[in-house]
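User: two proteins, same treatment. go.

Assistant:
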Amino acid sequence: QLETMEQHLSNRIYSQLKYFRTNKSNKSEKGTKGQNYENSNFNVGALGTIPGLLSAFEQLNTIKIYYYLYITIIYKF
């Protein structure tokens, strides 16, 4: 049970990061897109709204957190 939950979370974060990478160019649409992008169960929606809503300092912290999670996931599997 625990293993599958962990797998699920890591997959969700990975897909969000992939989405964030591929859609870096259209920043204007990002704010609304990110909120609706598969974040009903596990709220990683902050990634989608970074350019539009967060301040520069919060952006930096959020990016650092997700980067840390990303690295952790990459080296785990």
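Protein 2:
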Amino acid sequence: MSREFEMSLMGELRFFLGLRIKQGPEGTFVHQAKYTRDILKKFEMGDSKPMTTPMSTNTALDADEDGEACGPKEFRGMIGSLRTSTATKPDIRFAVCLVRGTGLLLGLLTVKR
């Protein structure tokens, strides 16, 4: 590849797009703690209580079709910020995909969870 592209050695990768990268003999691991804290800070949710699951098991999303709309800018911003987390966490991906097109308050509350 170095024959085709200009490359330089910058040492071992430690952070990439806000994610902490740890490389070792057993594999490469991606840690999202800093990225998650940055998202919470961005949306003023730093004091939020941690949840064990990304979505409540008794929330009926289809039951709120005519529900109250939420601010689309905030909603889309949160969905966009969660994009990186959804790439490595299928449970978060599932919850985000269910609500991403709703634009309803219930969807916003699910995203905040």
